[in-house]
Amino acid sequence: MPAAPGGPRLLLRRLREAMAEPVSPQARLDRIVVLIAANVVAEVCSVYVLRDDNILELFATEGLNREAVHLTRMRADEGLVGLIAKTAEPLALSDAQQHPAFSYRPETGEEAFHAFLGVPLLRAGNTLGVLTVQNKTYRVYSEEEIEALQTTAMVLSEMIASGELQGLAPDAGTAARRAISVRGTVLAEGIGLGYVVLHEPRIIVKTLIAENSEREMARLETAIEKVRSAIDALVERGDKMGTAESREVLETVRMFAHDKGWLRRMREAVGSGLTAEAAVERVQSDNRARMVRQSDPYLRDRLHDLDDLANRVMRELVGDEAVGLPGMLPENAILVARSMGPAALLDYEPGRLRGLVLEEGGPTSHVAIVARALGIPAVSEIENAAALCDSGDAIIVDGVAGEVHVRPGPEVEASYAEMVRLRARRQEQYRALRDVPAITRDGVRIGLHLNAGLLVDLGHLNETGAEGVGLFRTELQFMVAQRMPSAAEQQALYRAVLTASGDKPVTIRTLDIGGDKILPYMPKLEEENPALGWRAIRIGLDRPALLRVQLRALLKASDGHPLKIMFPMVATVDEFVRARAIVEREKAHLRRHGYTLPADCQLGAMVEVPSLLFQIDEIAREADFLSVGSNDLMQFLFAVDRENRRVADRFDPLSVAAIRAFRLIAERAAAAGCPVTVCGEIGGRPLDAMALVGMGFRNFSMSPAAIGPVKAMVLSIEAAEVAALIETETARMHDGDSLRPVLAAFAKARGVPI
Fold it and tell me: Where is the GAF domain (predicted)?
């Protein structure tokens, strides 16, 4: 069959004219399918739109029975049209009736047609519908015709996404605007209602059809060259830095910038009559559609690379003024991003933020820690999050159930609004307990402290009534900086922290980097298992200059006040002894130079490596205090990666093995007269904290939001009764059993809030 007269450029010009006609949306859509059928020389052209109930509905047709419009509906995985919607790939068949997925609706009259060509209607990688053409004869569609139909499909996608077709079918919205609910991983608790702000917003292409294709091709080529030059400069800079791993990454990026297939597709899209921006958007949307359907992590990363490069080209085309800046936040903003570092989150005005949604990032990531510090509900591992919504869309972040609702219906919105009101009333009740000591009903005092990592966290001390800071993470200062903080900068922060805490004690942990905590200005060390690799105190002991600078800054900052320093990831008593020796040398140095030393300098060790369980008596004698890092301790004890959703829930911290480990620490520390605090997530959950109280722990450090609920629990229990229950139940428990159901029933029977 010969190509259509005029080709795609003529079709796009006619489509532009049809889009400008002052007619109803249905009349415009009817006109468009007639134009497409004529251009492709097909007897049939049909548009199916994916409704918000995941049903494909025939919205317009030329050549089929028009009475079937808005009556013909099929599941999103049904027939050839459903196959295209599912795979997001074009499908060209010379005899469609021989395909295994072929099916037809008698009311349409399509049984007389053999040749079939269908393309998905894509926007930002999401399928909005399907565009098809059909012929009675057996016909092979050319690559040029497939390309032309894909280009046309992009114009239709923007028409659907604009909401123009809403109302054509009274009981259906379109997929572009439908309500979406997805489940992810909780990073920070709370509930946020607001409106989407894309961290790296997708640039909306307003002009799709080119006036002058030669000029658009020149604009595209110029933008590509600028992107290549920028990447070349980064590669040269990496060469001067001398970091092989950085050069390798940059060389990979440069390779993709010269990828002939990627460049050819953009050039072909411009050649078909699209503007340079529309061509980049079309290729980018195709890549995103493949990305979200790709299970191979390597291929997903490569598609992400192409996606990032397309964003670079797009920004060159539209200029910086079209890209939103972090400071430009509306009220009730909820950030949506593929990923984000702690520094990027801190660039935004926290008073306007109501939530955070990420595609990537685990509960122990530093952006999660910052979100918790700022009191921002956050959910991660939301696949293709940035493409599920547009800036300004209504959105709800449920940091309790780990759910995200995009464009929620009135009932969902009303339900969450009521939930927010209930949580606010509960917070008022917790605030009323602020000055009430955390003492159990049988007189056991429990110390409740804060986990912190930013100066802004210290404001929560008075708000919550916490007795002090049980864990101050110093690595956040290093992670949000563009370069290594100087000794003076470190000293200024530590002094500000100690000043802001007043008379309340602060336990400051030395730099805990490595593994998943990478400093942006230091080369990343490739390790087979970074969680078990060169990190935390191991780096400090192997590179003592880094540790000495931090310790000296801490000692100077204390200026006569008490100081508590804690070393992370101690695996042997010898490591603690060596770290303590470095502290003593720094104290001697400062003493010689006339500096005022801390009034009292206590040194502690984190118990988070299982090997320390078998040296617990020795470390309790050597250290001034201990702190249980329950997150890492459980991870290492059960060989479970907390960031891996396949295995993260395969253990329970209230199972037999975990309880034995916790009780061992509490009992041996008490025997040695060594204070011990639990500073991991388990201590901030009321039910788990109740169990820890029964095991003998008397100090906990947690997020600010957890103080109130845990204190309410403490005030409702008798420590001796809980201890007796645990003693009795653990004696009869078998391997694999959990104490959780028994404790939950106990709490319910006695009205303990958990």
Answer: 24-170
